[in-house]
Amino acid sequence: MEIINEMRVMFLSKSENESFSRVAAASFISPLDPTVSELVEIKTAVSEAVSNAIIHGYDGTIGVVTLEMRILDTRTVEITVTDQGKGIPDIEKAKEPLFTTKPDEERAGMGFTVMETFMDSMEIDSAPDKGTRIMMKKSLTTDLT
Ligand SMILES: Nc1ncnc2c1ncn2[C@@H]1O[C@H](COP(=O)(O)OP(=O)(O)O)[C@@H](O)[C@H]1O
Ligand SMILES: [Mg+2]
User: Fold this and answer.
1) β-bridge partners, 12
2) Fewer CB in 10 Å around end: N or C, the chain?
3) For ligand 1, is residue 102 a contact (CB within 6 Å)?
4) Among all ligands shown, which has an atom nearest to the Cα of 18?
């Protein structure tokens, strides 16, 4: 697939950077003229992955979160969110709807379910004490006008 554009931003694992990541993602894909629902879905998937890196990956410590985005073949958006935090011991378990390791902190355990629902594909690469990488792809609808 041809790379039309790509970007990478790195930021500290502070809660205010969840909204920064949403704005950065929305801004990067705006030349594609996404529909309102595509825009909401991509912003939501990005912020779920970024909040997981901040809350679970770094868990109160400060580290670096990396958001990378690519536009492939004109209308496919590829998103990667990486942390070097504590990692996920059981990926299949973590993906289950309603599974959360922080039930006491208003976590719904729906982050991975939301990412899988809103994007065309999602892959998790994680190892305990090494960190986590989430890769997601979504092809935007073609504007026929
Ligand atoms: N980046 C990450 N680093 C470490 N653990 C993670 C990460 N992302 C997700 N997890 C684990 O997967 C679980 C499920 O994530 P998610 O579906 O987003 O639910 P929630 O964030 O509400 O707990 C989390 O509770 C956590 O244990
Ligand atoms: Mg989550």
Assistant:
1) 64
2) C
3) yes
4) 2
Model confidence pLDDT, tens digit, residues 121-134: 999 999 999 999 99
The beta-carbon contacts of 101-106 under 8 Å, at least 24 apart in sequence, are 101/56, 102/55, 102/56, 105/55
3-139 maps to which CATH number? Answer: 3.30.565.10
Q: Tokens 């909040």 belong to which residue?
A: 51
- pLDDT tens for 33-60 read 999 999 999 999 999 999 999 999 999 9
Res 37: pLDDT: 97
Q: How far is CA 2 from the centre of its chain?
A: 22
Burial class (CB in 10 A: 0-12, 13-18, 19+), 49: buried
pTM above 0.90, yes or no: yes
